[in-house]
Structures are given as C-alpha cells and as structure tokens.
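Weekly puzzle thread! Below is a chain. First person to post its structure in token form gets bragging rights.
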Amino acid sequence: MDNVLNGKKSWLAAPALFLLGVVAIVAIWLTHSPEWVQAHFDADGASPVESATIGLFYMVIGLLWLVPAMRCPRARRFWRWDFSLVSMLAICRELDWHKSWIDTSNVRYVAGKMAGKAFTGTAYKLKFLTRTDAPWADKLIVAAFFAVFIGVLGGTIIYFLPRLWRGLWKLHPVSWSIGFLGGVGVLVNVVDRFPSVLRKMGVRLTDSVEALQTAMEEGLELLLPLLAILAILQAYFIYVAPGESYDETAAWREI
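Winning reply:
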C-alpha cells in the first residue's frame, strides 16, 4: 500500500487512472450502440454511470470524516467541513437540485428580436442576472448560489494553489491527484459545451458522435470522485500514517 499511495512513483497514480478511464470510455463507445450508450451514461440523470458518480461523491464525504488527511486536528476539522461542502455542491450540480429552485417557464423576453418568446436554457448564467424581465427573487437565488460556489470552491483553490504548484514540480502524489481532478473538471465543461458550440456553427452531430460526447462527459465526471478518493488516501498515508516510506516522503510533508 505504501508503494502505491506514497512511494516515489505514486504521483503516476492519477495520470494512470485518467488514462484507464478514457480508454474504458472509448472502448465502451466502440463496442455498444449509441442508444445503449445514451441509456447507460445519461438517461436524463437516471443512468447507472450518473448514479455511481453521485454515490462516489457521497463516499468522498464519508471518507473525509473517517480517514484523516491532515496532521493538525484543528485544520483537519475545518477542511473536512470545507471539502464536504465542495462535494455537496458537486452532488447538487449532478442532480440539478439548483435548477429546481427557479422556474423560468413564465419568463419571456421583453425587448429585441426575441421579444415575447419564452426564456430557454439554465438560469445559472451571468446573462440571467442582467436580464430586465427576470424576477428579482430568482436573481437573488442565482446570485447567492454563485456566491457560495465561488466563495467555497474559489477560496479553497486560492488557499492551496501555491502548495499545489510546488507539489506538481516536486512530483507530490496529492498535488498530482488534485491537479488531475481540476483538469478533468475543466475538461468535463469543455466536452459539455462542445455540441452547443458546433450547433451554433451549423454543424450537426451524428448519433454516434453524440453518444461519444455523452459517454466522455459522464465518464469523466465519474473520474472526479475517484480522483478525490485517491487524493484523500494518498494524503493519509503521507501525512498521518507514513509507515515504511517515512524517509521518502519527508520532503513532501514540508510542502
């Protein structure tokens, strides 16, 4: 266990997990029909892959409280709550709980070429806050969600960013796992926006390509909690229970 989670080459665990995940996603897409892929990866939030993603995020929260990832008890308590809230925000987004707080069915455009037409799309965009016809109560809900999301996630990233950057260069396993976690999160959003960008350009995707896009988006989302679990276990074995590799990981504990 020491060699896998806190050995000299354990920084490769995150890249290996990412590559295995991508290979598995592509292999499933190549060997199944587009209909099967859509049913098992999406299905409007009721697919096995999405259910597994949500379950793994709940597992992340449980693991945060069962497995100490920091040496200092006071810091450990605070960051447990912080990371748990970040995980709950991820669950909220995955289940679209935030979208259920606002009903845009009665919101219509009041000016321009779209005047009189119903508002479409999610309210959780900056353009919704700048609309003149959207109810102020809904705007406040959206603004509050943005404030919590940016405050918690952004504050956490800013606090750990210098340590993360140093750790990446020193091949710190936790830094690499968190780095890949953030990179995969960005990649998920890119893949999510890809079809809409192409539609605006007049490009229509085939059923097979749409299935690949769905499999890649949902499959990469499944990797997010797995990378988080990997980072938690690595931090535990490096900072709390270094074991036989104590001397090897001494430099990492100073980052």
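Puzzle host: Confirmed. Bonus trivia for everyone else. The chain has ten helices and no strands.
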